[in-house]
């Protein structure tokens, strides 16, 4: 298995095969407190329990009155009291005004509100417009003007953030049904990761992938096999794959004598979905499956591992959690030329900077698949297909490296 890329698939073929696998994986719904729901994905459509506002309310601190009565009053209207938010007011007395605070219910009979600073209050307790009388209906928030009872507030698959928490809190919702986060095990391997190795290397891939996956809403457990021993690797992979939805390995999948990951997974009963993708960097990317459980076997080079995670792993994760698989792309104008290798899809880290006519895309220098620092300088990833070379001045679409965009 490990010595062949003869059945390597094209980029879109790989994405299609992963999408087909994701259709057979589903996460159960769980209930979480609203205060802990940020970052979770809604498991169902959430409907409004009440309209907002629930009643006609004042948009400001001021005075509520009947417009026709105020218009006909030569010295204004006497103030009969004040309404605070949370109080249920009695009807407006005929020929009188009421002080009113922001958010307070409008009393029956009132059809206009004016800000306190735009009114004059006499020593005898009469209030009148300081200058111009506002229009009838002014400064009143009408019942249901934001949304009506039963309206869909959030659709299934929405990833919740502070905005959604506020929206649900205003409805008195304290618990929300969300998709149980995808459980992912990340396994790094290789004798070079041993602290006592003669040429020891730091493991940058595991923390990088864990951060990327957690940012996307997954629960991540890390494993390390700092050896080239196939038996120890197999034992760790068997342990890691127990109780998780997705297994992610990094390294050990090329054609070297110490690349044992694929054979170890095959020994655990996994079947190959595809072996190798015609991309650069990241050609060794392999996906395997054992029933509904998936294994994403990523290259060991950090740059290639990051690109494979961004382009192939995260869309699968999002699909399993009921979201749109593909992240939103942004358009920009390239200021460089690039010609792809025949039959190879390239992924280029680029700088996407606002300019006078939109975003400008600049190619960043990189040493290749092992490059780490280029991703701290880039903020987007540009896909270049074999038949679509990049030309200066061309509009191209890029994938932001941050979940909230450029």
From TrEMBL:
UniProt similarity note: Belongs to the MoeA family.
Source organism of this protein record: Acetobacter persici
Domain of life: Bacteria
Upper lineage: Bacteria, Pseudomonadati, Pseudomonadota, Alphaproteobacteria, Acetobacterales
InterPro entries (alphabetical): MoaB/Mog-like_dom_sf, MoaB/Mog_dom, MoeA-like, MoeA_C_domain_IV_sf, MoeA_linker/N, MoeA_linker/N_sf
NCBIfam families, per database record: molyb_syn (TIGR00177)
Enzyme superclass (EC): transferase
Cofactor: Mg(2+)
Keyword ATP-binding in record: no
Any Gene Ontology biological process: Mo-molybdopterin cofactor biosynthetic process
Domain MoaB/Mog: 185-319
Stated name of the protein: Molybdopterin molybdenumtransferase
Gene Ontology CC terms, in alphabetical order: cytosol
Keyword tRNA-binding: no
A single MF term (Gene Ontology): molybdopterin molybdotransferase activity
Function of the molecule: Catalyzes the insertion of molybdate into adenylated molybdopterin with the concomitant release of AMP.
The enzyme's E.C. designation: 2.10.1.1
Gene for this chain: moeA_2
This protein's UniProt keywords: Magnesium, Metal-binding, Molybdenum, Molybdenum cofactor biosynthesis, Transferase
Reactions performed catalytically: adenylyl-molybdopterin + molybdate = Mo-molybdopterin + AMP + H(+)
One Pfam family it belongs to: MoCF_biosynth
Pathway the protein contributes to: Cofactor biosynthesis; molybdopterin biosynthesis
């Amino acid at each position: 298995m490990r010595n062949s890329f003869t059945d390597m698939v094209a980029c879109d073929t790989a994405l299609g095969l992963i999408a087909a696998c994701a259709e057979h994986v589903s996460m159960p719904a769980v209930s979480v407190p609203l205060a802990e729901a940020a970052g979770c994905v809604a498991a169902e459509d959430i409907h409004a329990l009440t309209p907002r506002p629930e009643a006609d309310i004042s948009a400001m601190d001021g005075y509520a009155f009947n417009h026709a009565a105020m218009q006909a009053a030569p010295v204004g209207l006497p103030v009969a009291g004040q309404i605070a938010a949370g109080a249920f007011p009695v009807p407006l007395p005929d020929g009188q005004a009421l002080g009113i605070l922001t958010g307070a219910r409008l009393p029956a009979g009132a059809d206009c509100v004016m800000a306190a600073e735009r009114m004059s209050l006499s020593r005898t307790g009469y209030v009148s417009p300081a200058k111009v009388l506002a229009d009838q209906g002014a400064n009143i928030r009408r019942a249901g003007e934001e949304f009506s009872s039963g309206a869909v507030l959030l659709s299934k698959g929405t990833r919740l953030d502070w905005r959604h928490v506020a929206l649900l809190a205003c409805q008195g919702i304290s618990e929300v049904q969300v998709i149980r986060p995808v459980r992912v095990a990340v396994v790094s391997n290789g004798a070079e990761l041993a602290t006592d190795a003669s040429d020891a290397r730091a493991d940058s891939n595991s923390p990088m992938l864990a951060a990327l996956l957690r940012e996307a809403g997954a629960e991540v457990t890390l494993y390390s096999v700092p050896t080239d021993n196939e038996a120890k690797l197999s034992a760790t992979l068997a342990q890691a794959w127990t109780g998780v939805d997705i297994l992610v390995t990094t390294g050990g999948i090329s054609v070297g004598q110490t690349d044992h990951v694929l054979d170890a997974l095959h020994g655990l009963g996994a079947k190959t979905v595809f072996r190798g993708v015609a991309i650069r960097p990241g050609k060794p990317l392999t996906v395997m499956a054992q029933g509904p459980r998936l294994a994403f076997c990523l290259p060991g080079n950090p740059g290639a591992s990051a690109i494979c995670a961004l382009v192939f792993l995260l869309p699968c994760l999002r699909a399993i959690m009921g979201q749109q698989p593909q992240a939103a792309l942004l358009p920009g104008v390239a200021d460089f030329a690039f010609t792809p290798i025949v039959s190879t899809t390239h992924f280029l880290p680029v700088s996407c900077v606002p300019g006078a006519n939109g975003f400008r895309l600049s190619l960043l220098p990189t040493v290749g698949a092992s490059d780490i620092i280029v991703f701290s300088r880039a903020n987007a990833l540009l896909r270049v297909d074999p038949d679509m070379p990049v030309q200066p001045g061309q509009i191209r679409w890029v994938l932001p490296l941050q979940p909230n965009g450029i």
